[in-house]
Amino acid sequence: MTAADDERAAAQPQPQPQAQPEPEWKRRRRLAEIFGDTMPETTSDERDPAEARKRDGDTWLKDQVPPHHGKI
User: Fold this and answer.
1) Which residues contact 53 (CB under 8 A, 6 or more apart)?
2) Which of 5, 50, 52, 64 would staple 1 via disulfide (CB 3.0–4.6 Å)?
3) pLDDT in tens, 4-44
4) Is the pTM of this model over 0.90?
5) Are the CB atoms for 48 and 54 separated by under 8 Å?
6) What angle do CA 47, 34, 51 make, to 5 degrees?
């Protein structure tokens, strides 16, 4: 084999070993570590309606204003 043959052989992509599919529970755990738990444990009809009204819309937005900006 010549040096040119070696270069051509090295330039060709080598077959990658097939990775085993990741189990669903590992995938969910990995995503939760990265993004956090984005889905609530309960649905809106299972929660207290008074609590839902307290945390929706403008109330939630006003609660997010930093103290140095003053309350709206």
Assistant:
1) 59
2) 5
3) 666 776 667 676 777 788 899 898 888 888 887 666 777 77
4) no
5) no
6) 15
